[in-house]
Amino acid sequence: IFVRSNRLRLSIASLFLINALVHLVPSITLGQYSPGMVSAATLYIPFGVTLHLHAWKMGRSNQGESVISFAIGLFFMSVPFAYQALRLLHLIR
User: How far apart are CA 69 and CA 54, in angstroms?
Assistant: First the structure.
């Protein structure tokens, strides 16, 4: 990823991890298959964890940077949900 900011890079990795949770948690709690479950378990979690661990090992991240990157990733993940909620409330056409 051609981004200079480590926080932004890690936020993209965090976005993958949060997206995996969005797909896996309903599957686990309801005990049934959910679309995206396989890709979450086989792609998103390994990719996100690997990027975070690599950043820590290279000295480009620490606990504070990881927390901030998760907050930014959570914001990125919330944008489509907020947009859909506004569409359903007919506030956006």
Answer: 14
pLDDT digits (tens, 9 = 90+) for 6-54: 888 899 999 999 999 988 998 889 888 888 899 999 999 999 999 999 9
- Kindly state the DSSP code that residue 4 receives in the 8-state scheme: S
- Residue 57 CA to chain centroid, in angstroms? 21
Instruction: With beta carbons less than 8 A apart as the criterion, state whether 69 and 83 touch.
Output: no
Structure tokens at 57: 């090992």
- Report how far residue 66's alpha carbon sits from residue 60's, in angstroms, rounded to the nearest whole number: 10
Alpha-carbon distance of 12 to 72, in angstroms, equals: 8
Strands annotated E in 1-93: none
Global confidence as pTM: 0.80
